[in-house]
Amino acid sequence: MKQGEEGVASSKTSRLARILIDLSDRPNTHWASSCGFEPANLSNWLRGREISLSEKNISLLLSALSLDPETLKLDPSRVHIWFVAIHEPEVLKKAAEAFFGPEIEMVLVSPEPEGPATLSQGPQIALLRSGALRIILVRKFFTTKMTGPHVSKRPGTIWIRPSLIPGARWKAEGFSPEEDAPPIFLPGPLMMDLGMGHVTPELFDRIFDQARQMDWKDVELLAKKLGLTAKDMAKIILARRS
């Protein structure tokens, strides 16, 4: 490889590593420490100073980030967990462009309505699947007020829509990327396992493939969140028919 080509390759490698570190919700010092080199050297390399990390250390870092040092592809044999700030979606968009194929599907997961009320304050989670890649998205919590077409307006579920990621769609058919699809309800312990990334690819797929169309139970739950009674809902339906 010529010197110019080496520079381009190194720049791409550091850019991909920077994306994954941003999505890991862990600082540079964590990754430098786990790989056994100086944090300053990692920071310099991520800024494009090529000589700050040896090829061996670069390979160690990429492997720790589950990125193949040779192909620069994410490991498809594991489930990846990314932490995303919805009011700053650029990193997630860059990751999707860098690692995903043309088919990107999404589902939301939520605690079972009959479960403990404390779980309603747990992590907000979405699942992405693109080819063999499986991604758990966990929302970072901020006090910033979030608005926009990619953010759900449903009370209690201010979260993500596929429209945030170019080309993404809901797993359940019949829903626009700009609107809400019903979540998959899961037991609290399983929600916690997802939030920590403690699931196998097989379990991820079993959960993901439960995506479904909206049913009357979803309508009932939404009505309750909005403070509507059965009589209110009946009036809305009758008004649409008239």
How would you describe what is shown here?
This protein is α/β, with parallel strands linked by helices and about 240 residues long. The protein has 3 domains: about 5-65, 434 Repressor (Amino-terminal Domain), CATH 1.10.260; about 80-210, hypothetical protein tt1805 (3-Layer(aba) Sandwich), CATH 3.40.1530; about 215-240, no CATH class. About 40% of the residues lie in helices and about 15% in strands. It contains 9 helices and 6 strands. It starts with a helix and ends with a helix.
Tell me the structural class.
alpha/beta
- From the spread of the alpha carbons, the general shape counts as elongated
Terminus-to-terminus distance: 72 Å
Task: Report the C-alpha radius of gyration, rounded.
Answer: 21 Å
Count of helices? 9
Mean pLDDT: 82
CATH fold-level topology of the largest domain: hypothetical protein tt1805
Whole-number tally of structural domains: 3
For the record, the CATH architecture of the largest domain stands as: 3-Layer(aba) Sandwich
Q: Tell me the name of the CATH class of the largest domain.
A: Alpha Beta
- Characterize the main sheet: 6 strands, mixed
